[in-house]
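Note to self: the last two entries modelled the partners one at a time, which told us nothing about the interface. This time every component goes in together.
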Amino acid sequence: DVKVTQSSRYLVKRTGEKVFLECVQDMDHENMFWYRQDPGLGLRLIYFSYDVKMKEKGDIPEGYSVSREKKERFSLILESASTNQTSMYLCASTPGQIQETQYFGPGTRLLVL
Amino acid sequence: QKEVEQNSGPLSVPEGAIASLNCTYSDRGSQSFFWYRQYSGKSPELIMSIYSNGDKEDGRFTAQLNKASQYVSLLIRDSQPSDSATYLCAVYGSNSGYALNFGKGTSLLVTP
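The predicted structure of the combined assembly is written out below.
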C-alpha cells in the first residue's frame, strides 16, 4: 500500500511566522504535489515536483515555496504566514509515469491567527 | 481549459437506492479519469479509475465513461449511510502533464 504521511494534522501559527509543512511518501514515487482545499473552491494545486530539486508552479504559488532535497520528502514553506493561508493542505504523490493515480496524505489543517 | 464540472449537491438518496454522480469535462483530449471519495475532514481516497469508453465495475461502484459526450459518471448501488461523503471527479487533460484537474465535488447524503 502506498503511504503518504504529513508532519502535522493540525497546526496553529501566528501571522508573519515561517511555516514548514512536510510530506513523506514511502513508495519511491517520482512526483509529489501540494494542494490546498477550501470550501467552495475545491482542490487547488500550489506546487508540484517531478524529481529531486525540481519544482513547477501550480495554479496558486504566490506566498508559498517548496523544497525537495530527497526523493521521498516534499516540503511546503509559507515564508510569512497570513490569515488567508488558513486552509487544509494536502500532499499527494504518483509514480513516474504521467496520468497515474494520485495518492493523498491525511492532510494538515492550518490555522493562521 | 481546466474545466471539470460537478453538481455540488447535496444529492440525497435513501438507503438501498442507486446514487448517480455526474461529471463533465471540457478537454476533448482527456484520457484518464478518476473518482475519489472524501469524508468530512479527511483526505481524498481513490475509488475508481477509468480510461476507456464504457462501464467499469468494482463491487457496488460502477464508473461510466463517454468520451464523445465528455461525460463520466459514478453509480453507487445499494447505497449505505457510510457512503455519505463528497465525491470528487478528476481528469488528466491532454496537455496537463502531471497535473490532475479536480472538480469541486458532489456531496452525497444517504438517509437511513
